[in-house]
Amino acid sequence: MIPGLGGMNPAQMKAMMRQFGIKSEDIDAASVIIETTEGKKLVFDSPNVTVVDMKGQKTYTITGEPREEGNTSTYSAEDIEMVAQAAGVTHEQAKDALEETKGDIAEAIASLKKE
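Below the sequence we write its predicted structure tokens.
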């Protein structure tokens, strides 16, 4: 039984969903990775994934415990090297400056030279 559904069991729920043209399917996923705009990754190992299709619009539901992986740089090694050499700083400082300036190489170099 699913709590909050008035005692309706999962089989009844699926039958009712089919009547409304809603299809639900479980996906056998080994892992799911979500990359955020901040460059972080949420990794779900052995998740429960369900896809619900309502009139052609698919919605994916992921259930599980994610682990967070650190910031992954979205800037090329060449860009980081160029900023580091031009500003005379470490690669980590160059990467941080690129992130702060949203990838603007000239602005990253200028900001590092001011320090």
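The mean pLDDT is 86.
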